[in-house]
Amino acid sequence: MRDNKNTKEIHLASGAEERFLDLFIDVFGPEKTDKLLIQYGVNDIYGGRRYIDFAIVTENNKVAVEIDGEGVHEPGKVSHEKYYDDLLKQNSLIYDNWKLFRWTDGQLKRYPDKVKDEMYTFLSDYLAEKSRSDIEKIEPKGVTFELRDYQEDAINSLRKLRKEGNTIALLYHATGIGKTVTAVEDAKSYGKRTLFIAHTKELVKQAAIKFKELWPEVSCGIYMGDCKDKESYVVCASVQSISSNLDEFSKDDFKYIVVDEAHHGTAETYKKIFEYFDADFTLGLTATPERADGEDVLKLFKNIAHKVDLETAVKKNYLSEIRCIRIKTDIDISNVRIHGINYDQKDLESKLFVPQRNNVIVDTYIKYVKGKRTVVFCASVHNAEEIAMLFRENGVSAEAVSGSLKQQKRDKILNDYEEGKIEVLCACDLLNEGWDSPKTEVLFMARPTMSKVIYLQQLGRGTRKAEGKDCLLVFDFIDNANMFNMPLSCHRVFNLENYVPGALILGHGNRKFKEADFLRRGEKPVELIDMPVNVLDYEHVDLFNWNEEAKKMISQNGFVRMVNKQSGTISSYIKNGKIKPDLIVPCGSKSFNYFKEETVKFYAEEFGWTLITNENIKDMFIEFVKKMDMAYSYKPVLLKAMLSECDEKGVAAVEDIIDYFIDFYGDRKSRGLQAEKKKSIYNNDEIDRKAIQKNIFSNPFGKYEEMNFMERCNDIEYVRFNKFVWKKLSREEKVEIDRICDEKLSSYYRE
Fold it and tell me: Distance between CA atoms of 528 and 523, rounded to whole angstroms?
């Protein structure tokens, strides 16, 4: 047994706790007492120190066990203060994601057998998980190996970038070719204290193992969950843990930062970390630099230090060749709504979760690849469970795996799959990142997606090479869809217009070219001889991809930013047919409009609108201020706040803007003046900063942003003037704008 201070001698606080321990040993054996933390210290929500009788802390769960005297929690038998204090402790534990179990001394004495049954039911799964100390026991193997040529090239490129004064870069390498190894070797050659961050515990643990193997000369620890090693030379941390505990570190603790799956790096939690640490160099790792929300990863990472995409990696024989068979279903998803490039989940479920489609999936496996290690990507947890059950009913060993499973069960399923005890994994999202299996020979793309990121992540689960593995065979399940909500497939991802069943999508060297020559002669390549496909069946694939088309165009919001008219005017002209978009993308009950640049210029000239450029935007801004329309007082207040709080670059902290609004309307109320219209939040007695922030960004800021006069910085905590506006504003013009705002406010309040 251990307490949370690692002392060897344990003194239990009461006889009741001794009785609990005796029963615990009867159930689990004395060796499991090592999992119990005695009198484990925690803080309540007010920072008060509390102690749990027994705690079990694993990499995934925190379990509290409390042993009480009879009536200790009954309000009639203890003081109200004691009762309420105990409720605070219990609620604080639950708030902090602890699972809480209680037994009383009387139960332990009178019903020991029943308590032991309950112990087994409630605690056995948690005791089977890896404890906090187990995570810390990752030992280095001290392996030696040779870097591949592209890894050496990448490290040389990174050194060159640093020599040129760059402080951030992106390593774009396909899944399975050793991005982490390259990062470890570069960090090792740089030789300064290193922080590795990732968004899943699997990625964090994998990185810790790799650092310990390849850089055994320094200490390496994990900072994640309840394992908080912040003193090691290399710290591998989850982004969630590090971002919420930045005050535990000094700004100069780490001089080299590695960000795994860097396409997540534009999220605010990552930006918070980058802003905090004063690192010499930050390296992003990704196999999929595109982001589902369209935000450009290169805005943050600026330089691609080295690139080996999937197509290159396969061609150079680093990864398995990829073949594809398209399986058409009679499921119609043409009316499924989309949000951005994501399908509406409820719409999708109503279409996909039908027995016919599940039967097609199982029948395809039995017909084409029975006995091969296969991953089926499903649309939901329920869908995965249904398909796995159908596989088992047809004599195929299969299991569903998802994030909803407990860690112990999930690990067992994945281990059984690796050992060949399970033939088919039915997965939902869980396997997109942080897991791959070189022994996987087949992928079933049965989850429709319009996201290239998700599709390539799924593809990457099976691209690693393995002994006896000829290729990765991908089955694309093609549901009926319209041109705007067509899901991705191998052919659309790699821009292949002609489909031949089973033919190479990506091949080593020039093998794809040679195979195509075989097919042109009407001959069947040897790799396809045993496959029940007709290689003479050619099919043309419609490659229209509105996402790619839209990237080259200007959105309706972009149109508004280019001319001296507000969004209402543009919307009205489109609705009345005066303006015709070049591309209309339906999205449920809405649609999104896109325009070519020459189209915007044409309509600007036709309607006599001024095009806003970097040269004239300052003058347009001043004109906008002079003609400012006001349903509320917010626009001039925001302008005054920005002018008051901006630094020399025109950047202001959101919190400072909120303070200005609070002070402005508070001052009016203190002088007995009207703050705002009756329903305004500024009339309330209590200050709600979140509500004020929401008001600022949804109301006045939105209008300035719409006209491109203001924008949010990459870090959400700051806003700024358009740099071409701010740079050209003279001191006299700023004073004049402030005066106009005062005049507008005086007129608004009729003062």
Answer: 10
